[in-house]
Amino acid sequence: MGSATVKLTIDGREVEVPSGTRVIEAAKKLGIEIPHYCYHPALSIAGSCRMCLVEIEKFPKPAISCHTVAADGMVVHTDSGVAKQARAAMLEFLLANHPLDCPICDQAGECKLQQYYMTVGQYDSALLDNKVKKSKAKIIGPHVMLDSERCILCSRCVRFTDEISKSHELGIFNRGDHSELSNYPGMSLDNPYSGNVVDICPVGALTDRDFRFKVRVWYLDSAPSICHGCARGCNIRVDYLTRRLHHNDGKRIARFKPRFNPEVNGHWICDAGRYSYKTLEDEDRLYNPRVTDGNGDNPGWNAITGRIADALSSHISEYGVGSVAVIASASMTNEEMWAARQLFYDGLKIEKIAWRIPPGPDDIDDDLLIRADKNANTFGAEQIFGPMTHAADVQQVLDKIAEGKIKAWIVLDRDLSPAFGEEKIRKLTGGLKFSLYAGSHLHATSRSCRFLLPTAVFTEKEGTITNFSGRVQYFPLVVPPLGDALPMLEALSRLSAALKLEPISTDPGAVFTALAGDIAHFKGTSYAELIKRWAPISKIPS
Amino acid sequence: MAVQNIIKVAARRREATLGFWERVYIFEVVRGLWITTEHFVGNLYYHILKLFGIIKVHPLTPTIQYPEEQRTLAPRLRTLHRLVRREDGSPRCVACMMCETVCPALCIKIVAAEGDKPQIEKRPKSFDIDMGRCIFCGYCVEACPEDAIRMDTGILDIAAYSREGMVLDIDTLLSLQPAQRRTDKEVDELQRRLLQ
Asked: What is the ipTM for the molecules in this complex?
């Protein structure tokens, strides 16, 4: 190899790239998008779609820019007559057997066939032959549906299952225009990353069964966010509806899509994370503050925080502060944990703050993305609660309740029943003198608590979480909270005001600044910097 | 320019002053009464003639006696929507949401569902048009890739006792029929009347 970088000219503009870079990537660096289907930066190069043809001077004919390595002094034209004609002709081939059922295709609106047809397409068809019929709406896995007629045989999905998920379920069978994508006989596309083939499919061949016919994509707005499904903290894009809520069964969040971040998740997310959006607005959401033994009325935030403050103060004066435990969720944001520490440890002097629950036997780390720890912010909890608590393990707290040493608990957005069993939780909480739950959902744990405060899910608030490697990531508010729910930070702040303790700021930025001044791991990090690092959605799709 | 002229004319009108005879008032009252009487008597007389079929049209009786008498509609007039059926009776609509997207009044609401027949992949589970909001622009008809919605029922008297009543559902829209096609003679007659 010669020098480390090469200089080439694309569309009259010079660009310097590391040697070995493909022309398509060099063009991307200049902000030029060369139309392509089969090329994907994370997959091997197939060169099968021939859509990225460009004119390169001194080359005898157009060359595919995804496979041509940039060389010193190369002069590339992506928009010349030759390149345009080559692309239009290629697109005509790709569309030769395409059924053009865009009206019923879920990909319509984000389909690269549609996009490139509008920019480089040949509008009048010159084809007289009948289109080849193939199988339609074929279920090839728990999450994915295949329409072979729409497929342009780019083999991105085949390469994904071979190279990324390494599960090898898909292949292209038969020859010529009878070539057809399918799963191998007896195999179903059910690897934990199967949803990604839908994202990388540039056309409507592979569509999401979960998203099928729910809402047309042009009704959706997008916001960048962070997945809260496990400790990885994958960067995601939240697609949501603000108007036309008769679509998507009346729910605002329609789907999660991966957002490219080379340092965390690359181009992918797992299926568990992808479909975790369903819990955000399901029927178990807690909408109003509630007292479980009350008359079922909504007391309102002011009244209920007052009652909680009275009950908690009288409990502490009767049984002592040592009889109270806080069970925090390790999926809360760093700011909420800091506020909880301020309120319960510094304010009320409660020394038992537990968050640690060992992962279940089925939860294991895999070598791609999935982490055994299904909490989004365990690292943050270790940093923030770790130094001061006397009972980090939830098991310890449960044992002490069984012994009768703990007589009151405050559960912050956590369901203990999956880990410890519904029966046990119900039995233990029966003996509690005071129980408060602040969280987003109704479940076995929250139903057995006396006071319930509704809080927002992660798409309804902003904040930062720390992933398993210590990377602090910011996520913004996407949609306002449902019902009377409030962000946890605000709930804690109101509780603190009702207890007449030090006021807690409801602004995550201010809380983070206080936190960064105290906890070593966050020192030197500013909230504004995190917002800046939170990458907006990339303009050029991969 | 045109706008400035309009403003000028309006200003002049505002400044218009009454003449002497107009200010006397009594003569203007008599003149007004005369106009009313002329129309009343004329209308009464010619309408009676019309009632007995002695005359057909007369410039003094432009009133159409709705609803007994109804105006002939132009063939391309946009009237109440209907959903077109396929040959087997199922709706042609494939719930592609083109009409819902293009509708500037946001009066169309479609919910899509999996098709109920093997050859139909997607179908509308519900298709509501809020006629209280519709502005009869006809974009939905133009946007439809399947020719599934048309505005040719000839129905214009759309009324209901409530806002909800103005919302037509998929069954109603599918049950509507196109307006009767006119014979050539009727079209000629219509054109003659319209050109009059």
From this structure: 0.85
3-state secondary structure of A410: strand
Going residue by residue through chain A, which has 542 residues, state the pLDDT in tens, using 9 for 90 and above: 457 899 999 999 999 999 999 999 999 999 999 999 999 999 999 999 999 999 999 999 999 999 999 999 999 999 999 999 999 999 998 988 899 899 999 999 999 999 999 888 777 777 888 899 999 999 999 999 999 999 999 999 999 999 999 999 999 999 988 999 999 999 999 999 999 999 999 999 999 999 999 999 999 999 999 999 999 999 999 999 998 999 999 999 999 999 998 889 999 999 999 999 999 998 899 999 989 876 767 888 999 999 999 999 999 999 998 899 999 999 999 999 999 999 999 999 998 899 988 888 888 888 899 999 999 999 999 999 988 877 788 898 899 998 888 999 999 998 888 888 888 888 888 888 999 999 999 998 888 899 999 999 999 999 999 999 999 999 999 999 999 999 999 999 999 999 999 899 999 999 999 999 989 899 888 898 888 887 665 544 55
Amino acid at B117: K
Contact B129, B167 (CB under 8 A): yes
- Per-position b or e across A217-243, b if 16+ CB within 10 A of its CB: bebbebbbbbbbbbbbbbbbbbbbbee
**Residues of A in Cβ contact (< 8 Å) with B98:** 103
- Distance from C-alpha of A37 to C-alpha of A45, rounded to nearest angstrom: 11
Distance, in Å, from the CA atom of B40 to the CA atom of B34, rounded to the nearest integer, reads 10
Which chain A residues touch B112 with a CB distance below 8 Å? 213-214
* Both structure tokens of A452: 């319930």
Phi, then psi, of A206 in degrees rounded to 5: -110, 115
Sole residue written with tokens 């829209």: B173
pTM of the model: 0.86
Q: What is the DSSP letter of B62?
A: -
Tell the burial category of B49 from Cβ atoms under 10 Å away from its Cβ (0-12, 13-18, 19+): middle
Cross-chain residue pair A104–B95, CB shorter than 8 Å = yes
List residues bridging with B85 in a β-sheet. Answer: B91
How many inter-chain contacts (A to B, CB under 8 Å) are there?
Answer: 35
